Structure formats: structure tokens, C-alpha cells
Amino acid sequence: MERQIITTDDGSVTIYLPEMKETYHSKFGAIQEANHVFIQNGLALTEGRPVAILEIGFGTGLNAFITFLEAAKSGQQVDYTGVEAYPVGPAEAALLNYVGELKADRYSGVFTQLHASEWEEKVVLTANFSLTKRQQFFNDITDTECFDLIYFDAFGYPSQPELWSVEIFQKMYNALRKDGILVTYACRTVIKKAMQEAGFVTEKLPGPPGKREILRAIKL
After folding, report:
1. Is 3.40.50.150 the CATH classification of the domain at 30-218?
2. Segment 160-170 mean pLDDT
């Protein structure tokens, strides 16, 4: 499937799939969306304690890189697992401008390593950040009580509604520990109901620019 690099409204780039008419991040701003949804409304709730994160849709590595930068500032211990069925290749990764846009030149090698590291192996990037990438379809996830936080960043409901089903959210619920959090950019009623049927308690939150609301779900 053809993939194109496009620039979003905040100057950061993303990948566009013409065949699906789908982008990996918001066209209103890839970086600002990632910060708002996954950092401010996800990672920030785990401040001061070690956290195991599962990302559904590793994609461009943006969410992982921003999480790494936050951990580098705070010293938080992060064990990060990214699941991706169709990995971004090295040539595409080289075109992503996140290091410059985030003014993170000192960590340019880390961003390269996010994409260059082996799949299915835990890689220790720094003393407080480890990464495991799994090339896997989301419906094959079978983890049980392994994670504290899930970044749910699958393609949108209109393109792949099967990724937002009760069955998938049941897998997410099972993968989380008690009081674990799932956060996503989406906020359709059908998605909220699927989360609730899987056992989550849900809440709507204000969205980033271009998006009115997002969803956060908690396993009590």
C-alpha cells in the first residue's frame, strides 16, 4: 500500500495512505495531538512511579519518542511495548522530522534506534527506558495484566471498525493491571459502548485542536 509523507498544521509530518484516505496522526498537528492525547491525558497520570506502556499502532514512533523525552526529563522508569502489523521502513523513518520539531537533536540517535532496533526483542535505550517492538495483528494480543497504560492509536473507525470492537477492547482490558488506563484520540458513541461492554469505566475529555473530544478508559 502506498504511503506518503505529508506536513500537518503544526509543522510536524505524518504518513498518509491514499488508498484508505487515512493519516497516521491528525492533519491538524501530529505532535500536538500526541502530546495532548497520550502524554497529558495518559502518561501524566502515572507520574512518579514506574510504568509499563502498550502502544497499539507503533507507526511512526512519534508516541514512543515523545514518551522517551518525557522520561528523560523526569527520570520515570518506562517499559514500552509497541505493536505494529506493518512497520515503517528505514527510508520512511528518515523523512520524519520529529527530532527537529521537538528540538531534541541530542536524542536523534534514540529516534533512529526506535526504528532500527530488532523486533520481538527488549532493547534498553537508556537506564530508565526500554523498548520492545512486536510485529503483530492487534487481535492476536494475549497479554494478561502486564501493563499500566495503553496508548490506543489504531486507524480510525471508518477505515477499520473491527479494531474498535468489544473483542479488541476485551483484549485491552485483560492486558491492563488493576487501575490501568487506556487513552485514545477517538470519541464515537459506538467505541465508548464497546469499551464499557468490555468492562471499562469511560470518560470524555476535551480533544486537541481539530477534535472536540477524546476518550479515556479505566480498569477498576
Report:
1. yes
2. 97
User: What is the residue type of 186?
Assistant: A
Query: Cα(143)–Cα(182) distance, rounded to whole angstroms?
Result: 15
Sorted by where each begins, the domain ranges of the chain are 30-218
90 band by pLDDT with thresholds 50, 70 and 90? confident
Model confidence over 24-42: pLDDT tens digits? Answer: 999 999 999 999 999 999 9
Residues in the chain: 220
pTM of the model: 0.97
Q: How far apart are alpha carbons 93 and 84 in whole angstroms?
A: 14
